[in-house]
Write a structure and sequence with these properties.
This protein folds into three domains: 242 residues, Aminohydrolase, N-terminal nucleophile (Ntn) domain (Glutamine Phosphoribosylpyrophosphate, subunit 1, domain 1), CATH 3.60.20.10; 196 residues, Glucose-6-phosphate isomerase like protein, domain 1 (Rossmann fold, 3-Layer(aba) Sandwich), CATH 3.40.50.10490; 139 residues, 3-Layer(aba) Sandwich (Rossmann fold), CATH 3.40.50. The protein contains 18 helices and 27 strands. The strands form five sheets. An eight-stranded antiparallel beta sheet has the order 3-2-4-1-10-9-11-15, with helices on one face. α9 packs parallel to α13, α15 packs across α18 and α16 runs parallel beside α18. The chain binds 6-O-phosphono-alpha-D-glucopyranose.
Length: 605
């Protein structure tokens, strides 16, 4: 999705803005632009395609002395990804420059009104309309002008705004799309998310919905909905700049796969004490836990897949009906929900539009809501009754790995705790399960050693057009995530199936050389899944089997996963399959960290 940066300070803005935009590249974009401001007005640079094109045109920012500016990476929604449609957009009189993230839902009405008023629009975007509206509403008082304009906008948006009459200020507006202020020694930064400001500062302010902020070289002021200044405290983020650096790794994805032991340990360990899961992970009283009628785990993409695993683990341990739901479906389904329903919203960014909408719907319906989120201070965290933080650190690759691993860990904690509170997990069982949880980081570390084997396998596989991942129970939930990993970065069509479901249609696609990865890590289901493996092999499929048991000649390649608690096996089986996805994409020459059409943080519905 689009990325916003802004800077006002004592240094030249252009190189800082270009560096900030580079740090937002991972969000996904197709054009980019920068506006610089000083007493003589704007300098605007916009280019389609990679940021390097813009940086080359600006000569890396060399010789551009302005100390105030805004920048943007655009992920096209309204209008093609051309330089003309790239941000920043200027008002007709050239007094306002705007960068925008999000979607203006009433853009057709606004466009017609502006056209009827004689305004000549220069782009196809909804974003330019904001600049034109600012010109129309301009009364010299920028916060109040911004308020009157944003009152006319429907949808979710974040804005960075410059005004020629106040050339030493950057303005920002947040409405359901994240914005962060970073306060550094060299000046004050604005950004769509924390990694963009980390090289300069760990002191951040997370703006809240409805906030209008004014940034100067000395600091910032935030105005609330009533126009009065309000306190938005500076927070010190635990994230560090080098966590958002690629280091010696070829790709962020590979680095983040290797960071999984630490991400899982950091998520688990604060909540494991003397063989128990600490009570604060779950915001329920004993009576509420016992009275609970259902748990719904909601998320998008891999977060939903983590919920699929979590629902099975929780239902087995806490003996309460648990389901995982795609967030974009939950909100429109009119789900049966009441105060005895716990809705757990899972999100790395804490800003995914559909997950936020599901959270708000669950609250409206009276459910208890909590978040499993990776970004402290994110909207999801702020709006939930309680937050269980995944401590994966900043995740940059679009294809999530360590955040997914940390989400699984967090959901295990919730499952064990809920079981304890409901009396379905005995103290002895809690001791055993927490000991198993403590083993996970080192078991995951061990599985990272499969990297050469997975690379060799990726090289050996025939040119694939399709792939299938099968498994039962938790293995099926893990298969969904493994399939998504391969698909999203290598562009190979891939599907995941409950192994028993394959013969109800999809088996007709099996032919000589079809690639099937079979996950059979749950010992109790091994013989059943092996039967499914035999079925597809009989039709010519080439099978990679993952199992925690010793099975001879059951498949074309067998990968033995260390035996652990079956409930937690998804944390292990996914690791070699993430690596397989990574190396397959590598062999195909794909742009692994920036897969086409995808965005890291999906802040529109
Ligand atoms: C995008 C990302 C996925 C992620 C999903 C949900 O599609 O590419 O990796 O799983 O959004 O994101 P969230 O931040 O809510 O976990």
């Amino acid at each position: 999705m689009c990325g916003i940066v802004g800077y006002v300070g004592r240094q030249a803005a252009a190189p800082l803005l270009l560096q900030g935009l580079a740090r937002l590249e991972y969000r996904g974009y197709d054009s980019a632009g920068v506006a610089l401001l000083d007493g003589s007005g704007f300098c605007v640079y916009k280019e389609a395609g990679r940021l390097s094109v813009l940086a080359a045109r600006m000569n890396g920012g060399e010789g551009l002395p302005q100390t105030v500016g805004i920048g943007h990476t655009r992920w096209a929604t309204h209008g093609a990804p051309t330089a003309r449609n790239a941000h920043p957009h200027l008002s007709d009189n050239g007094h306002w420059a705007v960068v925008h993230n999000g979607i203006i839902e009433n853009e057709a009405v606004l466009r017609r009104t502006l056209r009827e008023a004689g305004v000549v629009l220069r782009s196809d975007t909804d974003s330019e309309l904001i600049a034109q509206l600012l010109q129309r509403e301009d009364d010299g008082d920028v916060p109040s002008t911004l308020r009157r304009v944003t009152a006319q906008l429907e949808g979710s948006f974040a804005l960075g705004v410059l005004y020629t009459a106040q050339p030493e200020r950057v303005y920002a507006v947040r409405c359901q799309s994240p914005l962060v202020i970073g306060v550094a020694d060299e000046g004050v930064f604005l950004a769509s998310d924390i990694p963009a400001v980390l090289p300069y500062t760990q002191r951040c302010v997370m703006l809240q919905d409805g906030d209008v902020a004014c940034l100067t070289a000395e600091g910032y002021t935030v105005y609330g909905a009533d126009g009065e200044p309000l306190q938005r405290p500076l927070q010190e983020t635990a994230w560090e700049a080098e966590q958002a650096e690629r280091g010696a790794y070829a790709h962020f994805m590979l680095k983040e796969i290797h960071e999984q032991p630490e991400a899982v340990a950091a998520t688990l360990l604060p909540h494991l004490q003397e063989g128990r899961v600490t009570p604060e992970v779950l915001p329920l009283t004993a009576a509420q836990a016992v009275a609970l009628k259902r748990v719904v785990l909601v998320g998008c993409g891999s977060a939903y897949h983590a919920g699929m695993v979590g629902a099975q683990v929780m239902e087995r341990l806490a003996r309460v009906p648990c389901v995982a739901e795609v967030a974009s479906e939950y909100r429109y389904r009119q789900p049966v929900t009441d105060g005895d329903t716990l809705v757990v919203c899972i999100s790395q960014s804490g800003e995914t539009a559909d997950t936020l909408a599901a959270l708000r719907e669950a609250k409206r319906l009276g459910a208890r809501v909590m978040a499993v989120a990776n970004v402290e201070g994110s909207t999801l965290a702020a709006e939930s009754e309680a937050v269980l933080l995944t401590r994966a650190g900043p995740e940059i690759a679009v294809a999530t790995t360590k955040a997914y691993a940390a989400q699984l860990a967090a959901l295990y904690l919730l499952a064990v705790r809920l079981g304890v509170m409901r009396g379905t997990v005995t103290p002895a069982e809690e001791q055993r399960l927490t000991a198993e949880l403590r083993r996970l980081p080192s078991l995951i570390r061990g599985l990272l050693k499969t990297a050469p084997q997975m690379h060799a396998l990726a090289k050996r596989l025939p040119p694939l057009t399709d792939a299938y991942f099968i498994g039962r129970g938790i293995d099926h939930a893990a298969a969904l995530e493994a399939s998504l990993k391969l698909k999203e970065i290598s562009y190979i069509h891939s599907e995941a199936y409950a192994a028993g479901e394959l013969k109800h249609g999809t088996i007709s696609l099996m032919e000589s050389g079809t690639f099937v990865a079979a996950l059979a890590c749950d010992k109790a289901l091994l013989t059943k899944t092996l039967a499914n493996v035999r079925e597809v092999r009989a039709r010519g499929a080439w099978v990679l089997l993952l199992t925690a048991e010793t099975v001879e000649e059951a498949a074309d390649e067998v990968l033995t996963i260390p035996a652990a608690e079956p409930l937690f096996q998804a944390s292990l089986s996914i690791v070699p399959l993430q690596l397989l996805g990574y190396y397959t994409a590598l062999e195909r020459g794909c742009d692994i960290d920036h897969p086409r059409n995808l965005a890291k943080s999906v802040t529109v519905e």
